[in-house]
Amino acid sequence: MIRKAFKMKVYPDNIEEYTKRHNPIWPELQKVLKDHGVHNYSIFLDEETSFLFGYAEVESEEKWNALGDTEVCKKWWKYMAGLMETNADYSPVSTDLKHIFHLP
């Protein structure tokens, strides 16, 4: 299992709506995530900066990267686009974080 961590940025005025839209996420998106080998996926908020910290355990980089090619993921990105920083294809602007410590 590969542990991935990344950061994104939600607009401060949209934190409540961002949270609401994730609770619960669409069942079809949950299925696609599971089908693509994503486990223990969590998103945390730094309330001072509005940065989001994402953590997921994935079966492979290939499956993780293929998520963005699914119709439901593209639909979700478009749905969330007004709430956070996004790229031209509506995917979230995301920066991978370097893993430097783990206590098993």
TrEMBL record:
It comes from the Bacteria. GO terms for molecular function: L-rhamnose mutarotase activity. The keyword Cytoplasm applies. Its EC number is 5.1.3.32. InterPro entries: Dimeric_a/b-barrel, L-rhamnose_mutarotase, Rham/fucose_mutarotase. Pfam families: rhaM (PF05336). It is an enzyme of class 5 (isomerase). Keywords: Carbohydrate metabolism, Cytoplasm, Isomerase, Rhamnose metabolism. PANTHER family: L-RHAMNOSE MUTAROTASE (PTHR34389:SF2). This is L-rhamnose mutarotase. It comes from Zobellia barbeyronii. The lineage of its organism: Bacteria, Pseudomonadati, Bacteroidota, Flavobacteriia, Flavobacteriales. The gene is rhaM.
